[in-house]
Design a protein that fits this description.
The protein is of the alpha+beta class. The chain is built from two helices and four strands, in the order ββαββα. A four-stranded antiparallel β-sheet has the order 1-2-4-3, with helices on one face.
Length: 97
Amino acid sequence: MNTPSAHIRVGIYPLDPRLAFFRLEVTDSQRVDLLALFAEQVEQAASAYTSQTKVTLTSDGGTFIIAFLNDKAPVTKEELQRHMDTLADEHNSSASR
């Protein structure tokens, strides 16, 4: 069984959801050539919850960090993680074709 290569880790800082911003760590350990495209898809999905995102790339080039305030539509960390897991699953299945 293949291990999924694309992954999105959701963090919320500080932990109080009314004042928090979300931090998404977007990685693809096997298909680095598709990482920027995957991060773009994640940023587009995040736009349902926010009016503005901040995207940075880690110094090693292996992870995109997408940060945003939850100012458009209320979402919990768990709901957002489920949404991002679905996106990662779709990306992994399309990349394996």
